[in-house]
Structures are given as C-alpha cells and as structure tokens.
Amino acid sequence: MRAYDLLFSGVLSRLDPERAHHLGFAGIKAAGAVAPVVAPRRTAVRAMGIDFPEVLGVAAGFDKDAAAIDGLAALGFGFVEVGTVTGEPQAGNATPRLARLVRDEAVVNRMGFNNAGAEAVARRLARRVGAGNAANAQGGRSFPVPLGVNIGKTKVVPEEAAVADYEKSTGLLAPYADYLVVNVSSPNTPGLRDLQAVEKLEPLLSAVRRRADEATEHQERRVPLCVKIAPDLADDDVRAVGDLAVALGLDGVVATNTTIGRTGLTTPHAEVEAAGAGGLSGRPLRGRAEEVVRVLRDQVGPEMTIVGVGGIDSVESARSRLEAGATLLQAYTAFIYRGPTWPRSVNAGLVAKTGVRR
Fold this sequence. Notes:
Low-confidence stretches: 131-140
Strand content: 15-25%
Radius of gyration: 19 Å
Structural class: alpha/beta
Shape: globular
Number of helices: 12
Distance between the termini: 33 Å
Strand order of the largest sheet: 3-13-12-10-9-8-7-4
Order of helices and strands: HHEEEHEEEHEHEHEHEHEHEHEHH
Mean pLDDT: 90
C-alpha cells in the first residue's frame, strides 16, 4: 500500500471533507511558494493557440481563487483552471456541503461557487504578473503553466441580469487568462443550467466574447473562449451546444461538469442519501462523460478543442478519453483519492503508452 493510501484511509478520510481539502490546499500552496516550478520547455499539446506542457490539467473547483497555481504546476499538472469565479464575492451554500462516497471513489458537492469574487481574484493575478502587465502567451509568461479562468453567475443575480454579471467577470479576468471558460452547468446555483438552452446561451457567449475582446485589445491578443456543459444534457442538446459553439467560433467545450444522477453506485443507499443533494464527480461519471465527448467530437469536427473531464482516474481512462475525441484532459476527484504524485504519473504514463503527444 502506498504512503498516500495509508494517509488517506487513516487520517484524511476521517476528517470532514472540506476540512481535509483546506489542509491539503494549504500544503500545496505552501509548497508552490517555497519552490516555484519553472515552465517546462516541451509541448504535449498545442490547442487554442496555446502550448500545453502536459495533457492533464486540474479542473476548476480546486483552486477557486487562484491561490495555488505554482503548487499545482509543481505536482505535474500541465495547466490549471481556476474558479469558478463569480462577479460578486459569495460564501457559497451552507455547510456541510461536501461528502465522499469512498467505495465509488466519488464526491458529492454542493459548494455553490464559494469564492472571493472577480475583483479580488483579478487583484491577486495582477499582483502576480506585475502592475500594468497581463498574462502573456507562452514566451516569457508569468505563470508556470497555462492558466484557465472559469467564470459563473453570482447566485443572487437574477437570470435577466446574468449576462451583465458574466461581463463583469470577463472584463476583470480576461487580461490574466490564457483561456476563459463560461460555466453554465453547475447544479448548485439555482437556474444556472437553464442557461445551457441554446436560445439563452447564444447571447451570453456572444456578450462574453465581445467583452473579452475589449478587455484584451491593448494586449493585441485574442483570449480563447470555451463553454462548460453538464453530463445530464440529452445527446440532442449536446449536439445543439456543439452546433452553437461552431457557429459562434468558440475555441472549445469543456465536457463535463458534475452530474445530478446517482446511477451505478455501489455505495449503500443510506450513505448516498446522507451525502445529500449536489453534483456527483469521480469514477461513476466516467461512462457518461466519455460519451458526451464522443457526441461532441462527431458534431464539432476535428479542429475544435474538447477538454475531457469526469471520472478520469488512471492512464487507461485518460487514454480512453483521448481516443473518444478529447484534446486535453482535466481531473479533480481522482487527485483526492490518488494523492499528490498522481498527476505527474498519469502524464508520464500517457507519454509512455501513446508515444505521440496529442
């Protein structure tokens, strides 16, 4: 048994999940501050005009406020997607709001986009890159690996004001992002998933695109824009989002967020019920998340970037997602169960098994 397995089973699994997350996060943040990672020179994937040093990155949700980018890069993640960041700061949902289903290597969360808000995150990123500067393309960049910024709707903002809320976050954060992700798929903000309907999604994405271009005009660069979708969309709705992404000239789709479903679990029903409502992530999501990638790839063609996320926990599952049509990969839940050496081992294993960098 690995040392991390003993630590997880003997210590971390006995702690409140959110408490364990904060302890682990503090350690990663501290490690990044002590030994900042130097950006790798190699390129595993070139996507959206960006050179990614590794295929596997960390999904949004782990580093909500862009506080541990160096530490996550040092662990071997090839890129870091921070957030979800909202226009206004918010505490998120009431605790407890995070539960483990250990038997299924899954997590149920109803965090509710707890974050410091776009203004605070923008200030943190501005301090990092220096006054008046912004995150550059790969040469001479301010971050060790590409930085994605995931933005969502503030809970108290009504649907009719959602576009303005996303525009606020975009204007503040686009100058520091290598790519932006519009999150309309978390199950933990009331009404958010309704924005996945094409008739609502089109004006939202168009507005974010315009605002991102305005915010980065002085940098003479175009920030790539993606949308993150739910696994619970019907295949026809996935295809409709794919068609919209092509029509709007989006750079990518992140597939998928967590699921509200609870099928295929081996965890006893009473334990699942005790975990409560929220989005399920981890191994049980793998099959559907992979199928969504296949549907999307068939719909959008070979060029658009698809970021595959959901249930990736091994070199084999990572390779399968690439074969399904993903360009890049993200993970979070497996990181909890497999430990700090896991991201580097998966990225190394992908190189060894595939031989060719995607």
